[in-house]
Amino acid sequence: MDIRLNNHFLDVKETYLFSDIAKRVRKFQEENPDREIIRMGIGDVTLPLPGAITSAMEEAVKQMADKASFHGYPPEYGYDFLRDAISDHYKNIGAPSVTPGIIYVSDGAKSDLGNLPDILGDNPVIIPDPVYPVYVDSNLMNGRKISFVNGTKENDFLPEPPADTGIEPSVIYICSPNNPTGAVYSYEGLTAWVNFALKTGSLIIFDAAYEAFISEDKPHTIYEIPGAESCAIEISSFSKFAGFTGVRCGWTVVPDTLEAGGIKLSKFWARRQATKFNGVSYITQMGAAASLSGKGFEECLANIAYYKRNATALANVFTDKGIYFTGGVNSPYIWLKCPGDIGGWEFFDSILERFGIVGTPGEGFGANGSGFFRLTAFGSYENTLKACELFKTL
Questions:
Q1: Are strands 360-361 and 372-376 parallel, antiparallel or unpaired?
Q2: Residue 64: enclosing H or E segment and its boundaries?
């Protein structure tokens, strides 16, 4: 063929981080068929959907089986009952400005993070390092120029804004609680980023997918910070909160106060979604709405408490051993310094061979991840305790 391709895809690593991990684990299993594997690598939930959610979805299925209550194409931006429920959730966490009309329901945070470059021009992009790969890859695929702000042990993996406020207006990615480091910005830290964006005319894309894990006095949403409605889009998800990794549902908040060149960003995002997305199923949205109030909300928090107990058990081991780490308090992730100053992939091979434990090398999240390692708390409590006993022998 003589067609042209988007050669910016050549700028992206040929294999996805977790594909590399899966390949190594498969090889280990083939060579060691009798060894038990404790999986602490991919951030996938393992507890079943809460009962109140499945009850709501079962009721929705019954409605779909009845001509009188059947639902066809869903509204492009989400059913009103779910947008109302999400808005009420924002009121409960201190952001009453997030009204239903600026909430756009989707099939997950990763999709929206990958799709947002569709509505943005050729702006410079500022991304923290280490970072969730989709921020980098989706912008490389669109030919964007990326610069990094460094998350390091010295700043507890919470980088501050660039000192130069005379920079060109940029698109800034922030994730708090952070994936992979588990670090969470304070009100002061997040305020510094909002003020930087306002001063430079920049846009923040704020990933709040792990908001429900916050237990300390930290901001749950960027819209708790004054001025954020004029400089920030927020993306969140039911994946970790309600266990929807296999169900798929999330949302993006695009305030009507966000404007560039006299055009509301919400106008472009609404048009993009209406053109390229057919909405989330009625059954899924019924389950999502059930997770945000009453029994469903309590059951979701109970699942989160289960995972956080796992994180605490891991954190206690590394604290006792004097191994530096972040996360484990307001996050399901432990981000630890590899013992003996070895590399992340070397540590991966070592604990897989020695313990049968699978984690994620920090190198997969950027240059500043070199020599670090991510463990997730999404496994069973029993397997987490097994892993803790094994890690005690490091």
A1: antiparallel
A2: helix 51-64
Contact 306, 332 (CB under 8 A): no
Beta bridge partners of 390: none
The structure tokens 């070895």 sit at 342
Q: How many C-beta atoms surround the C-beta of residue 88 within 10 A?
A: 14
Inter-residue contact 106 to 235 (CB < 8 Å)? no
Instruction: Give residue for tokens 């991966």.
Output: 348
Quick: pLDDT tens for 221-275.
Answer: 999 999 999 999 999 999 999 999 999 999 999 999 999 999 999 999 999 999 9
The closest of 219, 212, 358 to 297, measured between CA atoms, is 212
- Distance CA(243)–CA(108), nearest Å, equals 12
pLDDT in tens, 175-186: 999 999 999 999
Domain match, 38 and 106 both? no
In a domain, 259, yes or no: yes
Q: Determine the structural domain holding residue 312 and report its residue range.
A: 15-49+296-391
Q: Where are the beta strands (DSSP E) in 254-352?
A: 259-260, 263-264, 325-327, 333-337
Q: Which of 76, 193, 173 is nearest to 124 (CA)?
A: 173
DSSP-derived letter for residue 217 is S
Q: Which of 246, 273, 294 delimits the end of a domain?
A: 294
Residue among 43, 20, 60, 73 nearest 243 (CA): 43
Q: Which tokens in the block code for residue 36?
A: 């038990």
Q: What are 374's strand-pairing partners?
A: 335, 360
Same domain (yes/no): 363, 240: no
Could you give the C-alpha distances from 99 to 86, 88, 104, 159, 288, in angstroms and in order? 9, 8, 11, 30, 17
What pairs with residue 38 in β-bridges?
357
- Three-state DSSP state, 200: helix
User: For the chain, what is the domain count?
Assistant: 2
Cα–Cα distance for residue pair 103/51, rounded to 1 Å: 26
Q: Give 155's Cβ-side CA count (13 Å radius).
A: 16
Do you find a cis peptide bond into 177, omega within 30 degrees of 0? Answer: yes
**Selection from 343, 335, 312 nearest residue 153 by Cα:** 335
